[in-house]
Write a structure and sequence with these properties.
182 residues, mainly alpha
Length: 182
């Protein structure tokens, strides 16, 4: 567990660096990293509902869960970005992107969740090690997927509108300064 206190934050930081390198913007990398707390909430809630302790296997489950949650965020944001690059207006790109990526995001989450159900329900010898891992992944994927499909597109639009307002304000101030100098 001591190593995990170092490894988990380091893994999240490395994921963030890869996202930043991939998307080239801080706002999109942060937007996708928002999926990690969404997943964390579901994993912790599932452990609590099943009356299981946070163990080493549960912590490893969180690492696997974060990977799938981030993947779903990447699928959503990259598709919306592609629509925007094709000239689709912001609101329409967000709606179309969320609708078009519904199936891939759901399938990714369902495959992982359904694959862990036998582990989560097992009563065989040694299952006490497997149960927390499976419980974390299933619970976290439920909340992460729902929030990826509902909250992430909303946050995307909100952040992009805020960026546009900031750029418009900066351009207006630059024009005023230019006029005042002349």
């Amino acid at each position: 567990m001591q190593r995990l206190y170092l490894v988990v934050p380091l893994a999240i930081f490395l994921i963030f660096l890869l996202l930043f390198a991939s998307f080239g913007t801080l706002r999109h990398a942060l937007l996708i990293i928002v999926n990690v707390p969404f997943a964390l909430v579901g994993g912790v809630a599932a452990l609590w509902l099943r009356d299981l302790n946070l163990s080493l296997s549960a912590a490893i489950g969180f690492i696997a869960l974060f990977g799938v949650a981030v993947l779903n965020g990447v699928v959503m944001v990259s598709y919306i970005n592609r629509l925007r690059e094709d000239g689709v207006p912001l609101h329409e790109a967000v709606l179309d992107g969320a609708a078009a990526r519904l199936r891939p995001v759901l399938m990714t989450a369902l495959v992982a969740s359904l694959g862990f159900i036998p582990m989560a329900l097992s009563q065989a010898p040694g299952a006490e090690v497997q149960r927390p891992l499976a419980t974390v992944v299933i619970g976290g994927l439920i909340t992460s997927t729902l929030l990826t499909l509902l909250v992430l597109p909303t946050l995307y639009e909100w952040i992009e509108r805020a960026k546009r307002r900031t750029l418009s304000s900066a351009n207006a101030e630059t024009e005023i300064e230019t006029v005042q100098r002349h």
